[in-house]
Amino acid sequence: MQGSGTARLEGAASAAAEAVRAAGSVLIVSHIDADGITAAAIASSVCDRLGKEHRVVFLKKLSEEGIGMIDSAPEPLVWICDLGSGYLSAFSRPGIVITDHHVPDGSRKAGQMSLDSFSDMVHVNPHDAGMDGSTEISGAGVTYLVAKAVDPSNTDLAYLAVVGACGDVQDSEGRLVSMNREILNDAVADGSVSVSEDLRLFGRETRTLIQFLQFGSDPSVPGLSENGAECARLYSSLDIPLKDGRRSRCWNDLTPAEKERATDAVLSRLSPEDAERAIGETYTITGGRPHTELRDAKEYATLLNACGRYGDAEVGMRICMGDADALAAAKDRRTSHKQNISSALAMVKEKGLVKRRRFIQWFDAGSEIQETVVGIVAGMLLNGDGADRDMPIIAFADADDGAKVSARADRSLAGRGLDLSFVMRTAAEAVGGYGGGHSVAAGATIPPDRKEDFLDAVEDIVAAQII
Ligand code: C5P
Ligand code: ZN
Q1: How many angstroms separate the alpha carbon of residue 138 from the centre of ligand 2?
Q2: Global pTM?
């Protein structure tokens, strides 16, 4: 099954490659998150290498304005990455390539994709090939397939697709699978990524040993999370020095024997399920300097997300393309991102904003949380103790063009039939808005005075979907 799906996806990627090769100049349009930024970096590198004139525009989402900009762009080809599939029927221009993994707009079917003419739309999307775009391949991954179809030596870009997939949490089962695995294999063969089994807490390169355990939250470690003194005692009891001369050591500075001792001590504090979840693959970017975000795929993706969410996806893309100055700018942003998220989380909890209905829970952050981060906050509430994992969570935040909605759900609900992409699109359209996304992470924009009607519609659809 996966074999024929792969062939279909690669067939579409070849058609896209043809269209890119044939175009005089290219407008690359991409999403502002880590997956979109790495996708844009891949697409832009492809154009650079072909000597093709191109510019890159980042969008938070495809609004009517964005579609208008694409329709009227002077370039003969617009290459849309990590966006677009949900709005296929909205475009009215020729010369569009879409490399995306969001659930496609149902009004245009896979078979309608034209492979023989670059003046028509070429749509490369795993769903059209019978794959799941939330776990099997990311937007950067699909874009990478086109890069590889343009030139097989473009496998040096595979590591960016690994970062993109990690940014979209496609490794949530502890490892990258399916097409993501194929892409990972390209990156490993190229020497740009190495894979190891390790404790999957965040911050293997940039956090101190204490911070690594103290702030590791998924899963949180009883007795160690939020308790720096206890973390310090643990390392000392295991005879693991916190410093190397004057410099603080990070998790990846530990020797294999030290790592094993510390890992065993952490696992012994976890439930069997959490212990299983805590161990998995980690991806080291071999070209990234040790002790920087660029060395670890997860940290790299988090850095890019911080750029994108605060209006500077371009800086993120410059980092992906090797610009060292951009890294310093991004670090400042990452610090403010962390502070923003933690104060937003605390605010929602302190004010008791989350309300429960029968099948869903929701909160309205108004203008207190930026619309670009409200989805991250909703996801963190679900993963922590701020919300109920058995129900989807719907979050509202004020945006310039209406009320921004972010919806998140635990993966187990997708197994029971939940598809938030359909829920967001259908409920939004019922109140005069629009939306889409993935089964467990989706979003919408709706008229601000229709929130109650929207929630009613969401609840009806969710109740009908979940078995
Ligand atoms: O903005 P947020 O992080 O909540 O978005 C979750 C997912 O839903 C993203 O993949 C985004 O592209 C998608 N989305 C969409 N249409 C919207 C809003 C979000 O397809 N109007
Ligand atoms: Zn994506």
Answers
A1: 5
A2: 0.84
